[in-house]
Give the backbone structure.
Amino acid sequence: MSAPNPLLAHTVAVLLDDGLVTLNRAVGVLRRRNVPIEGLALHPSGTAGLSRLTFVLKADAATADRVAQQFHKMIGVRSVMVLADGDSTTEAAR
Amino acid sequence: MSELLTGAEILCRALVDAGVEVIFGYPGGAIMPFYHALPDHPRLRHILVRHEQAAAHAADGYARASGRVGVCVATSGPGATNLVTGLAAAYMDNSPVVAITGQVSRPMIGRDAFQETDIIGITLPITKQSYLVQDVTELAGVVADAIAVAREGRPGPVLIDVPKDVQNQKMDWKNPERPRDPRSRLRGQSLTPGAKPGTLGSSGSVEEGVHQAARLIKGADRPLLMVGHGVILADAYADVRALAEKTGIPVITTLLGISGFPDGHPLHLGMPGMHGEVHVNRAIQQADVIVGIGLRFDDRVTGNTASFAPQARIIHIDLDRSEIGKNVPVAVGIVGDARDITRRLVAAVEPRWCERWLEHIHGFKRPRAESYRGDLSPDAILASICEASQGDCTIVSDVGQHQMWVAKLYPYRRPNTHITSGGLGAMGFAVPAAMGVHLARPGHTVWAISGDGGFQMNMAEIATMVQEGLPVKMAVFNNGYLGMVRQWQQFFHGKRYSCTPIWSPDYVKLAERRSRPGAGGVHDRTGSQRVPDDPARGLAVGADRGGARRRARELATDVRS
């Protein structure tokens, strides 16, 4: 086994449809996958019909990527950005 | 030309337009407008189940056998909540099911009205998408969307919740200009399969991934192919077989991958994991390269992932990007359709053979325990079932000990002829799911094989099959125990057989009582004689608690009307 990777604060920003079912499902992903989050915020995205869900999780890069992928496959999700502590913003690879 | 139609009529028309032919359902208050409209649409055959759970399992079985969407319908509240187990089973096993539920009228939503439940909230984690229809103008578009979403990419269940007043709401219906769900355009990129094809951790192209995989395969001394449900969903049988035969790599089929590669093929090894074959698990532990196609490295396959395949570099091919690296670390992850990627891999690999490795694996094989042998052993019973249908039938198994026997011992030759609740492991699945399989494959022999526990969970569906004239054959492995739990009690709980003995009714008498008069024979043959090979009859097979002395009973299930 390799040594565990260091935990970093990752900010994840999810751009998604602002329907209540989509938002409910998105927040549900965090609970369902037992993702340890430190903050959760929902903002208008500036584009009509779309919202931005932002949360911070303390995890290694692989876990952050796994979380991003769970959002990517959700219907109604447009993009997922993952910002690691001290990193520049990158769109999570699909 | 336009007509004034109700939401319920539009719902029926939208289902007909989508090519739906069979609906499994149960009426009730909030879905009554739909049932009022249904008789005007004879192309929609409705199967009245005896419990909504069976409707969902039957739709699931129909979907798995046909590759088309299976549809189930229930009323609000208890009708909807009864669907939950079936939807969870469909979700875990990626089955395209559309569930339509009645809901209380819009002004009543949120007031804890009679038979109101938040079924969308309840099913969020076990559905791919859900719709609460807010207006009749959305309805036709929602149905078309739901059916598309259920099938596309990695399939899964979708729920449509239709308030009763929307079912009664009228609108001007213009055919063929179907009103579209105004939200459908927002579905954007997610409409396409869950992820773009590509390779992880490299230049990102599929070509690069295939190239890397081919290199790893070339350099491997002890390679294995692991085949999962994705191969069946993607219809990748021929390509997987071509890959195995070009490289000589032995093939493992997971529980849901069974029948994705022919049993009896010289390269076929069997099932891995907790209940898998010893030689298969030992091969995994010694493998240096594993090519996994369309599987998720479930914990029943891997056990403790830290010690799973410790020497192997894993090439993982999956349609769902989120599966790659989720459970086991991978050397090469390729995102894409199993058939497409496997085909490319076949073109990229160099021909080779793995004779010594295959011989080495066969050296791990051990004779089966005594209880597996003899005239009425699981082996012999399953061989008889195979013989009775000339090897051409679909087996739908339930969950438990018999499921593992069926998985390991039945010789599957044809693709997609093994259907079971793998991910959820839902007891009670087999009987209703087999009903769905039969409707998807009329004229084809379908066997529902259950234990005495699972059979009793949904045996009420025999009545449905009698009413609808569905000649599904049923076999019950009746050993008087919840066998799988008992087995765990034996191994892990100090042989304390708490609450696992289970009484059974006389299944033969039950079948007699539930058969239509003159609708085929019911036979009770108790004793140790060989199972007869009359394909017109089903079998119920009993064993005493020790499993040493066994009794065989025939359960007539020939309920043709």
Summary: Chain B touches chain A through 32 residues (CB under 8 Å). Chain B is about 35% helix and 15% strand. Residues 145 and 184 of chain B are 7 Å apart (CA to CA). Confidence is low (pLDDT under 50) at residues 181-195, 517-561 of chain B.
